[in-house]
Amino acid sequence: MGTAVATRTSTATFEPERWTVSSGPLSRRIDEWSTVSAATLVALDMRPTPNTPGDFRGVMERRRFGQLALVDCAVAPCVGHRSQALVDSAAAAERVLGLQVVVRGTEVARDRTRSVTITGGDVVLWHSQRPVDVEVLEPVYKRVLLFPCDLVESICPRLAEPTGLPSLAGNAATRLLVRYIDDLALELPGLDAVGQAAAARAALELLRAVLEPMLPTSRDALRTAMREDIRHYILGNLQDPDLAPVSIAHAHSISVRALHGLFEDVDESVAGLVRGERLARCMEDLQQQPDGDSVTTIAFRWGFCDTSHFCRAFKRAFGMTPSDVRRAALEAQAGVIP
Questions:
Q1: What H or E segment, with its residue span, contains residue 139?
Q2: How far is the C-alpha of 165 from the C-alpha of 210, rounded, in Å?
Q3: Of 287, 286, 289, 291, which is closest to residue 310 (Cα–Cα)?
Q4: How far is Cα 97 from Cα 70, in angstroms, rounded to an integer?
Q5: In 3-state terms, what secondary structure has residue 244?
Q6: Helices (H), 212-321
Q7: 313, 24, 14, 15: which is closest to 6 by C-alpha?
Q8: Cα(198)–Cα(324) distance, rounded to whole angstroms?
Q9: Over the stretch 194-216, which tens digit does the pLDDT of each residue have?
Q10: What are the structural domains of the chain?
Q11: How is residue 158 annotated by DSSP?
């Protein structure tokens, strides 16, 4: 960063990172704001406009949680250009989806086909892989929730299709997500790592509720979406010992044959998915609480009904027995090197 023009502060693990551009000549401030934008949102080639004040000021604050980030941005009038060349040069690092809530101010977003004026109270969805010009007409304060595209597409596969982003206007699920984002800004500093990861999962599920009803369908997309629904159902019912292809098919109103057919073109079976997720939860319990419940209790907690069968499956999956994992975790906890 430049000398004393843009400053970044962060004092603790869960406190926000903050960038401020507030001193130096206007050209330096604009250049520094370009750097700040690239570090927090997306890379933009920033330029002053006739409305840009000589004492141009910009503040960016970022809170990371789970795989997401919540960014607050306050900036004076200016314009940012994101060309296809700039998109391509930053593609690997900046493939994100942004849900933007404008608290106050006015900006205009322009692409090849349209121009959209965004004012206080508006909610828009943008994709980092699309060229755009963004001009701040009046000082803007906005809040942006950033989602990695790969993560969003894993739970909402139809979003990967080249159909454009849906409008969020008048959507009840959008209003719920906006309220959740405001609460996140207040509560994130008080959450530990586990709480922040849970908050990120909740935000992702709310985004899914916003997007899914508005996206077009195709046979392949529907099959992929159905598999994701089944995965979510399995993850929510792992502790049910009766969780099996028959009960999963019944819960989704399809035949067992149709259920297996959904997974025939992917490298996993329904039963294998259930077993793998259960074993992963058992591994977590053994590693995180090595002096906790017995191996049998942990196995039964996650739906296994036979301890011997569980131990054999565990060793096939991880190359070590549950007792080995527990012993290693206890030694690590005590600071003993095996």
A1: strand 132-148
A2: 12
A3: 286
A4: 12
A5: coil
A6: 219-236, 245-251, 256-262, 270-288, 295-301, 307-318
A7: 24
A8: 29
A9: 899 999 999 999 998 888 777 65
A10: 6-214 (2.60.120.10), 219-334 (1.10.10.60)
A11: G
- The SS3 assignment for 204 reads helix
Query: How far apart, in Å, are the Cα atoms of 245 and each of 140, 223, 256, 260, 270?
Result: 52, 17, 6, 8, 7
Q: Is residue 37 within 8 Å of 80, Cβ to Cβ? A: yes
For the entire predicted model, the pTM comes to: 0.64
How wide is the angle at C-alpha 118 spanned by C-alphas 215 and 196, nearest 5°? 65
pLDDT digits (tens, 9 = 90+) for 91-104: 545 689 999 999 99
The token duo for 181 is 């984002």
- Phi-psi map region of 121: left, alpha, beta (phi>0 left; psi -120 to 50 alpha): left
Separation CA 187–CA 181 (nearest Å):
10
Distance in angstroms (rounded) separating the CA atoms of residues 258 and 74: 52
Q: How far, in Å, CA of 139 to CA of 18, rounded?
A: 18
* pLDDT tens-place string over residues 273-288: 999 999 999 998 898 8
